[in-house]
DNA sequence: CCCGATATGTGACTGGCATCACAAGGAGCG
DNA sequence: CGCTCCTTGTGATGCCAGTCACATATCGGG
């Protein structure tokens, strides 16, 4: 099956390639089948906005393919990106469960596909499948942890360079020799990086220069080579 | 029944004065009775640390009386207070549910009392009482919202004065005539206020001077009088 | 392959806030 | 009552990062 934007549509959760790894994808067969019934699938082009911060929650989106950025903005235009979501992630869960407005805006960064599950159907599903409700609670507390990481970064990390180092480390694979250069595909603009660490485009640009001069970093097209992980770690304080 | 520190002990959840309002306090009778069995009550003096960020979670604390501050610190000593908890609040829920280290330290700000529920007992209780699990999920998503508020404050609110205005507004009662001065009991030091809005003691002191000069604010002993709420609101950007 | 739009590099300037320093209130306690 | 410790007020100083401005590079679509 072929969709626009050159994607293969995944229309059955039972045979989803990311089924094993994620919240709604690793459940008893009966539950997955039920989920498969109440979801609706759609394909989205780049820059599609799935939902906007402040909207009443209509339901959750399970991202099947593509990346999405979650961000929140102030009225004067300042923006912070709180998360880059990938396939398997569930978007809008907190708002949907608590029936409060979406706390972020979700926007596709590349073409992708998502399953939508309406709020009512989800809540009914959770009431029927009590074991999944606890899983949802666990997912929510994972989200909470991520949020706390962000709070620490924003509140305890004073300098942009430290935040930048932190971000680079979060990108570099955990495993692998610490002293061996790590290669990372970088798909964000300097502007977006700035929105992730709470600084300006210009500062990010200067940070790249600095870090390259200090042999911490190297770029090759859109590939980023992290040359000195231990040195980056030494820059952290939290 | 009398306890040290001049507090009355509340040893039965069934007759707890805050029973109606909060997570574990507004449940079917059978559930409350079960909770009452698995909890253990203790009284804590000021400055007691209930748990420390990074520790493996032992269980949750239900605060029955007194206030506690939740905060996280970096290794170089910088601290941010993320929440002031009051009677009825459940502390350590996220860590306990997800079995990850406590994400904050909880410290009593005044003498108080708390019920402790061990992790194993709590999880068993939740499995038996499925309806409560969903309530827990709701509570977790409320926590998540609070965390997001904090992220917005830290990330989108640039100037200390704006953050300070935000804090003052969060203290002033929602109801009541907007133009009428609101009286608030202030129990925090400037240092602690600084830790709440991510600035220094000195800056907080100067903010008080400024705001008083601008007729926004007035102090009378430890009572704080917010004189011009609309003007404070106009200072916000998010 | 070309062109407009978008992204990036870099200099100059400036202001707000952290930092340091010290003085002066205020509370608790013997 | 007077001591000490904690908290608060306020000046002087310096620096980092935001802002503005403009040049250059790179991307993507026709």
What tags apply to this protein structure?
homodimer; 238 residues; alpha+beta; Jelly Rolls; Arc Repressor Mutant, subunit A; 2 domains; four-stranded antiparallel beta sheet; 8 helices; 11 strands; DNA-binding
Helix content of chain A: 25-40%
Strand content of chain A: 15-25%
Order of helices and strands of chain A: HEEEEEEHEEHHHEHHEEH
Number of strands of chain A: 11
Q: Greatest contact pair?
A: A-B, 43 and 43 residues
**Total number of helical segments of chain A?**
8
What do the pLDDT scores of chain A average to? 86
Low-confidence stretches of chain A: none
Query: Strand order across the biggest sheet of chain A?
Result: 1-8-3-6
Count of individual domains of chain A = 2
The quaternary state of the protein chains shown equals homodimer
CATH architecture identity of the largest domain in chain A: Sandwich
Which class of secondary structure composition applies to the elements of chain A? alpha+beta
- CATH level-4 homologous superfamily of the largest domain in chain A: Jelly Rolls
Q: At the first level of CATH, what is the class of the largest domain in chain A?
A: Mainly Beta
How does the major sheet of chain A shape up?
4 strands, antiparallel
Distance between the termini of chain A: 48 Å
Shape of chain A: elongated
């Amino acid at each position: 099956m072929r969709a626009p934007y050159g994607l293969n549509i995944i229309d059955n959760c039972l045979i989803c390639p990311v089924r094993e790894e994620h919240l709604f994808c690793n459940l008893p067969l009966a539950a997955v089948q039920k989920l498969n019934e109440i979801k609706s699938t759609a394909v989205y082009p780049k820059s599609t906005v799935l939902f906007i911060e402040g909207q009443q929650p209509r339901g959750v989106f399970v991202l099947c393919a593509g990346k999405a950025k979650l961000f929140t903005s102030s009225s004067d235009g300042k923006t912070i990106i709180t998360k880059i979501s990938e396939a398997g992630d569930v978007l809008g869960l907190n708002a949907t469960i608590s029936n409060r407005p979406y706390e972020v805006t979700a926007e596709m960064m590349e073409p992708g596909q998502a399953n939508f599950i309406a709020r009512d159907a989800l809540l009914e599903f959770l009431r029927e499948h009590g074991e999944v409700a606890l899983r949802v609670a666990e997912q929510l507390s994972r989200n909470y942890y991520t949020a706390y990481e962000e709070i620490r970064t924003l509140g305890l990390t004073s300098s942009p360079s430290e935040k930048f180092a932190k971000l680079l480390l979060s990108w570099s694979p955990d495993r692998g020799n610490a002293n061996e250069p790590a290669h990372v595909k970088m798909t964000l603009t300097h502007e977006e990086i700035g929105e992730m660490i709470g600084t300006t485009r210009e500062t990010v640009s200067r940070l790249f220069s600095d870090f390259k001069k200090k042999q911490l970093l190297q770029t090759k097209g859109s590939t980023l080579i992290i040359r000195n992980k231990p040195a980056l770690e030494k820059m952290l304080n939290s």
